[in-house]
């Protein structure tokens, strides 16, 4: 047996081992991707349930802002009237 006969056999064996390793890694990658997909779906469901809460918070914040703006406008107009009366005298 010469090197020209042994070398192709070694390369074929290493190629087969590499092919098997790649198949195993691909299967593990597919399993991992399926697990990740389940986690992402779970997170999506939980975020959708929180959307209602955030919508309620947004409505309450909007109304609170409207009320505080009205109060500030009233107070500022009252202060403006007081100072205008002093200036007119």
Would you mind describing this structure in some detail?
The protein is an all-alpha fold and 89 residues long. Helix content is 97%, strand content 0%. The protein contains one helix and no strands. It is rod-shaped and about 120 Å long. The mean pLDDT is 91.
Gross morphology: rod-shaped
Rg over CA atoms: 37 Å
Instruction: Classify the secondary structure makeup into a structural class.
Output: mainly alpha
Number of helices: 1
* Average of per-residue pLDDT values: 91
- The helix/strand order is H
Q: Helical proportion?
A: over 70%
Number of beta-strand segments? 0
End-to-end Cα distance, whole Å, is: 122 Å
Low-pLDDT segments: none
Largest sheet at a glance? none
Structure at a glance:
By secondary structure, the protein is an all-alpha fold. 97% of the residues lie in helices and 0% in strands. The model has no long low-confidence stretch (mean pLDDT 91).
